[in-house]
Task: inverse folding
């Protein structure tokens, strides 16, 4: 689901999918949803791990690992000279949002 889908029409689509899933459960008819383990674990409240994220976005995990291994002294002294990118992301609906801590 898109994070910016908050309009009544969008919510009605989510309700429809929920009702479709409930109907499948009621009549004991499997509904094939090919979702990554990250999504399933979040839906059922099971803890996720790095392997789940790797299955969805390997580049994200590599970037996070690289960020975690940066020397703190280097970060304080040279960060602004080396990192010139802006911290924004584009949502699945094309909306651009700032990433804030």
Result:
């Amino acid at each position: 689901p898109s994070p910016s889908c908050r309009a009544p029409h969008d919510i009605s689509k989510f309700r429809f999918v929920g009702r479709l899933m409930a109907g499948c459960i009621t009549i004991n008819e499997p509904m094939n949803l090919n979702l990554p383990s990250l999504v399933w674990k979040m839906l059922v409240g099971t803890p996720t791990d790095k392997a789940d994220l790797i299955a969805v976005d390997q580049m994200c995990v590599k970037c996070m690992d690289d960020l975690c291994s940066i020397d703190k002294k280097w970060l304080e002294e040279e960060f602004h000279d080396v990192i010139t990118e802006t911290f924004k992301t584009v949502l699945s609906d094309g909306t651009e949002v700032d990433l804030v801590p």
